[in-house]
Amino acid sequence: MDYQEHSFQNNIRLVHKQVNNTRVMHCGFIIDIGSRDENHKQLGIAHFWEHMAFKGTSKRKAYHIISRLDSVGGELNAFTTKEKVFFYASVLSEYFDMAVELLTDITFNSIFPEKQIERERIVILDEMAMYLDNPDDAIQDEFDAVVFGDHSLGHNILGTTDTMKSIERSDFLTFIGENLNTEHIVFSVVGPRSFKDTLKVSGKYLKHIPGHHSVRSRVQPIPKHGQKITQHKNFGRAYCAIGKDAYSVKDLERIPFFMLTNILGGPAMNSRLNLSLREKYGYVYSIDALYSSYSDTGIFGIYFGTEKKYLNRSIKIVLSELKKLREQKLGSLQLHKAKQQIKGQLAISEENNTNLMLMMGRSLIDLDRIDTLDFVFKQIDSQSARSLACIAEEMFVENQLNYLIFNPTDHEHHQR
Q1: Do 25 and 147 have their domain in common?
Q2: Same domain, yes or no, for 283 and 395?
């Protein structure tokens, strides 16, 4: 069996995969709370919590948290998404016990010291300013708001300047109390230790965490279609996002749509948009087609930057590539190559044991199962040119696409 699982009495699940060709244990808590669970006064609090977890617990000061694993060459990390918070670590196998104990402490025993809240508030406001100066990041985040409007999925994970300045210690306790559900927490482990040994070490700390059940319901967004929004920004180039809502993580069309996105503008240099916009015309330095799936919806977007004079031509080429996918079925060789390419990318991604550990936890929360690579490969292999064309017809309808354009501010604009 590839993966082994155990549920503790508090309903936290342990998932484990033994990998013998390494001396490193990768482990972490995947918690089903993210920025979409915030109300308007709490915007940014999930990400703020992720920062504050390193700033003090009932038995450790910030310095002792950050130096605990550093001193044995380990790594401690965390990140926040729209639906999850991740606290995780990588250490030599002999320090696994130390890693589990520390992760449990920062995840469940944070005390949110007032002084540290003030310091971290400044750090996050600085992070927000840096993000605003980066058009590639800014357009992706602002495009979420174009597609999902004022729904929580449309809000920036970092929050707003106003909410960042107003969040207090009691707000963290309220937010976690309202959203924490031990049934929706997974402790995921990948490494050389056996399941029996991993269960023994993990159980020492995890079984003492009090069970917590919150009644929380996520409201499904009503996505917007056919909008064209232009903003004038003080950037040297024009930036564009084109896309719409997409399939949820549970949707059967998710994998074929992921394949289509990959053909269109995946990470490989031979993606259709890269070949046409960069290699053929030199209009862009890079262009990406990205698809993110959530528990009840998803988002698809094409993102690029170009000289203002090439913007309309670039959009025209993007639309023509979408039209080709709608109207021209892939030839058998094209389809075969597309399948081999995505299978290779997935296999390489799973070679990274940190990625594998995080994917296992996320999958168990979202799908209540972990699909093996073989299972995913079978799903990819089962796709026909016709099935991909049907999805393209459904997803790439021109009048349903939303546009967000950052036009560079010019002298003429200032005059008006």
Answers
A1: yes
A2: yes
Residue 223 belongs to some domain of the structure: no
Within a domain: 397: yes
Report the domain count for the chain. 2
Instruction: Tell whether the model's pLDDT for residue 411 goes beyond 80.
Output: no
The CB-side HSE value for 273 (13 A sphere, CA atoms) comes to 30
Distance separating alpha carbons of residues 87 and 60, to the nearest angstrom: 17
- pLDDT tens digits for 334-367? 999 999 999 999 999 999 999 999 999 999 999 9
pLDDT digits (tens, 9 = 90+) for 229-279: 999 998 889 999 999 999 999 999 999 999 999 999 998 889 999 999 999
Q: Which helix (H) or strand (E) holds 349?
A: helix 332-351
Quickly tell me which residue has 């050389």 as its tokens. Answer: 192
Contact 10, 184 (CB under 8 A): no
pLDDT for 415 equals 37
pLDDT at 309 over 90: yes
Whether residue 224 contacts residue 293, with contact meaning beta carbons closer than 8 Å, is answered with: no
∠ CA 301-303-305, rounded to 5°: 165
Residue 46 lies inside a defined structural domain of this protein: yes
β 228-233/402-408 pair status:
parallel
Read off the amino acid at residue 372. Answer: T
Query: Domain check: are 22 and 169 in the same one?
Result: yes
What is the structure's pLDDT at 375? Answer: 93
**Residues 88, 24: Cα–Cα separation, whole Å:** 13
Residues 188 and 281 occupy one common structural domain: no
- 184 lies in which domain range? 4-206
Give the residue numbers annotated as catalytic, written as ranges: 50
The Cα 345–Cα 93 span in angstroms is 28
Same domain (yes/no): 132, 188: yes
Q: Is the pTM of this model over 0.90?
A: yes
Mark whether 254 and 142 lie in a shared domain.
Answer: no
Report pLDDT for 1. 52
Euclidean distance between CA atoms 5 and 206, whole angstroms: 14
- Mean pLDDT taken over the chain: 95
- The half-sphere exposure of 375 on its side-chain side, counting CA atoms within 13 A, is 5
Contacts of 288 (CB under 8 A, 6+ apart): 265, 302, 303, 304
Cβ–Cβ < 8 Å for 195, 36: no
